[in-house]
Every structure is written in structure tokens, then in C-alpha cells.
Design brief:
Strand 3 (49-50) and strand 4 form a beta hairpin. The protein is globular. The strands form two sheets. The chain has a five-stranded parallel beta sheet with strand order 2-1-5-6-7, with helices on both faces. Strands 3-4 form a two-stranded antiparallel sheet. It has 139 residues and is α/β, with parallel strands linked by helices. It has a single domain (3-137), classed as Rossmann fold (3-Layer(aba) Sandwich). It has helices at 13-28, 36-40, 55-69, 84-94, 117-122, 130-137, and strands at 3-7, 32-34, 49-50, 53-54, 72-76, 100-103, 125-127. It has six helices and seven strands; from the N terminus they run E-H-E-H-E-E-H-E-H-E-H-E-H.
């Protein structure tokens, strides 16, 4: 079973709800997932220290370990601009040589009708809907 790391913004209820919707869709189609807001934690809701580490370091290390254990990186790209943390995670995951895919149903772009080339070039594909994503993941 492929394990998918889901990178996305997680700072408001709308974002967290959408992330869970995508996670449920993937799990319902037989994939294992790592969803940082659920599996790593939301920093604003955590105590200052966890297992002797500052919460920022704890979440960073936990998410990095999850990326190392994942087979595919999924970047949820909807929004005016891509999430900064997800961009850094994409760069890290891209360097592993494992597949990276984006999901973007949002028509907004910043670069002459396209997403930033550093993001586009790191992704094997940008899917426009869940069905297209499922097709990519099943191949």
C-alpha cells in the first residue's frame, strides 16, 4: 500500500476541513496517508515542549520522518499562493527522487497563467481534480 504525505496549509477551519476531505478520499481508495494536522500536530494547539524538544523542532522532525517513510508527496496547491511550509517540504521530498504530485482546483496563478516554475518542475504532475489524482496514484 502506497503511503502518501499530504502537504497543505492548515491554518484555518476551511483549510483543515479540505485537507481532511482529501485524506478521507485517499484512505477510501486504499492509500495510507500522513496528514500533518492530524499526525504531526498543529503547533498553535501544542504545549511548548514535547518529549524534551521545543514544539517547533518536534513537529519539524516528526514531519521529516513521515516524509522519509512515505512513497508519494501530495501538495494541495489551492489558495492565492502555495503554503510556505509545504514548499519547503516539496523541496525536501523532491530530493529523495520519489514521486511528487500536486492537486489544484484553483484557477489563480502568479506567473503568467502558471504556477511558480520551482514548484511546477518539482512536481511530476499537477492534477486538476480528485479523479485525475487517483489515476496518477494508481499508476
Amino acid at each position: 500500500m502506497k503511503k502518501i504525505y499530504i502537504a497543505a496549509p492548515l491554518y484555518c477551519d476551511y483549510e483543515k476541513d479540505y485537507n481532511l476531505q482529501i485524506d478521507n478520499f485517499l484512505r477510501g481508495n486504499g492509500f495510507d496517508t500522513y496528514l500533518p494536522q492530524r499526525d504531526g500536530g498543529v503547533i498553535s494547539e501544542m504545549p511548548d515542549f514535547i518529549e524534551g524538544m521545543p514544539k517547533d523542532r518536534y513537529v519539524f522532525e516528526k514531519d521529516k520522518e513521515a516524509m522519509d517513510a512515505s512513497d508519494v508527496f501530495l501538495f494541495l496547491l489551492d489558495g492565492r499562493v502555495p503554503d510556505e511550509g509545504a514548499c519547503v517540504a516539496l523541496g525536501y521530498f523532491y530530493s529523495t527522487g520519489k514521486p511528487c504530485v500536486g492537486l489544484k482546483s484553483d484557477s489563480r496563478t502568479l506567473c503568467e497563467g502558471q504556477d511558480n516554475l520551482m514548484i511546477r518542475m518539482a512536481l511530476n504532475k499537477i492534477c486538476r481534480n480528485k479523479e485525475e489524482l487517483l489515476e496518477f496514484l494508481n499508476h
